[in-house]
Amino acid sequence: MLETRHIDKEKKYTRKELLGLLGLLALGLAPKNTAANLLLKKSSSMMRVKTICLDAGHGGHDPGARGSRSSEKDVALRVVLRLGEKIEKELPGVKVVYTRTTDVFKDLYARPAIANKQNADLFISVHCNSFRRRAAQGTETLVCGFNRLEEQEVAMRENASILLEDDYEENYNFDPKDPSTLIVFSLMQRDHRDQSIRLASLMQKEFSRSARVNRGVKEQSLAVLATAGMPAVLTEIGFISNPDEEKFMLSSYGQNQIVQNLYDAIVNYKKAVES
Ligand SMILES: [Zn+2]
């Protein structure tokens, strides 16, 4: 087991530092008290799901995608709060931590930092999709990985929240749209790739069982997942740009169904990794 107690979990790294750490990581030479070690924490053989960090996308002056009646930030928060309540009530021994419980703006780097600080075993970010064609519909769940640039549409949109941060240049010291930044993001989650894909696949399976259109599991270079030191997924629970799906996501019935899908996926994931 790696020493993880004294890690500076909230340090922000410049791109140069990150590339250096990743190089050392690849050579097995990473110094002890760095985020690089945090990334190596919790191999699948010692997985327990005791703490889950739920992240409602966007917030405050970042509304995310807009539907005709609502904003992504509000739908995401409602679903996250309901999901957290259900987990705490029905999964004894599992603690839930939130990146936000109200309509506030949080920097993308601050979200996984909360999960890291709380030693969370899972990081789940909830978002709504959007597309210029109103007929686009369905659910998809993303893990941090690298695909061809033209396939990074969701990542580009979700990462753009960085640009709304007051001091993003100071926080990141790199351009979120630079292709090499996207590669760094994907490398950082590499050690959790299999478990992240496992959870993402279970989520998509549950959405399918509820007859939602299944757009699958995708790998994209997502800033909000990159520095999470645990399996991390970003789930797009439906298209807010599609009037029918927006109505569904705003309804109590729809929210209950989405929450049940995510909850069942978490329970199945927990059983699988702990057995
Ligand atoms: Zn979003």
UniProtKB/TrEMBL annotation:
Gene Ontology cellular-component annotations: outer membrane-bounded periplasmic space
Domain MurNAc-LAA residue range list: 112-267
Assigned keywords, A-Z: Hydrolase
EC number(s) reported in the record: 3.5.1.28
InterPro entries, sorted: MurNAc-LAA_cat (IPR002508), N-acetylmuramoyl_amidase_3 (IPR050695)
Gene3D superfamilies, sorted: Zn-dependent exopeptidases
CDD domains: MurNAc-LAA (cd02696)
Biological process annotations from GO: peptidoglycan catabolic process
Molecular function terms, GO-annotated: N-acetylmuramoyl-L-alanine amidase activity
Reaction it catalyzes: Hydrolyzes the link between N-acetylmuramoyl residues and L-amino acid residues in certain cell-wall glycopeptides
SUPFAM superfamilies to which the protein is assigned, alphabetical: Zn-dependent exopeptidases
UniProt name for this protein: N-acetylmuramoyl-L-alanine amidase
Species in which this protein is naturally found: Candidatus Sphingobacterium stercoripullorum
